[in-house]
Design goal:
Blueprint (H helix, E strand, L loop, with lengths): L5 H17 L2 H7 L3 H12 L3 H20 L4 H14 L14 E5 L14 E5 H7 L4 H11 L1
This protein binds zinc ion.
Zinc ion binds next to strand 2 and helix 6.
Length: about 150
């Protein structure tokens, strides 16, 4: 199984802690002014319960991630990537950079139902691909507008 991504881990802890706080009226009212720092404190305390998080992660992984990663095997992915790079003339779809470190991006991210098919794949330079992450193309272009 894949390692637990740090972001997911922290996020899961925080969500968990917030749920607990909100379901307890007494703690909820007392902690109100200190809500944010209490959530951080409680989440840090929970790092001790690594086993619980591992169980949650493994459930999450089985439910939401495993199938998506295996929608295509590694050899097909290599072939497909090569086709995409050739088709796009080794040019980044987002910034027009040619050459350099190029990757293949899912325009509609896998996490949002996008598939590993030619019409959903484009060449992206590493810089753009890191910025895009799991945004859709429209969301990314808007983000680029606001940040550059
Ligand atoms: Zn680019």
């Amino acid at each position: 199984m894949a390692d637990i991504p740090k972001d997911w881990y922290e996020h899961a802890l925080t969500v968990d802690v917030k749920k607990d706080i909100n379901s307890n009226e007494r703690i909820k009212s007392i902690s109100k002014p200190y809500y944010k720092s209490f959530v951080r404190f409680a989440a840090r305390q929970r790092i001790n319960y690594v086993n619980d998080i591992e169980a949650e992660w493994s459930e999450y992984y089985e439910k939401y991630i495993k199938n998506r990663l295996s929608d295509i095997d590694i050899d097909s992915w290599k072939r497909l990537s090569h086709q995409v790079l050739e088709r796009d003339h080794y040019t980044c779809f987002y910034c027009d950079q040619t050459g350099g470190i190029l990757e293949v991006d899912h325009m509609t991210p896998v996490s949002r139902g996008g598939e590993s098919t030619l019409d959903n794949l484009v060449t992206a330079c590493r810089h753009c691909n890191r910025q895009k992450r799991d945004k859709t193309v429209a969301e990314y272009l808007k983000w680029k507008d606001e940040h550059e």
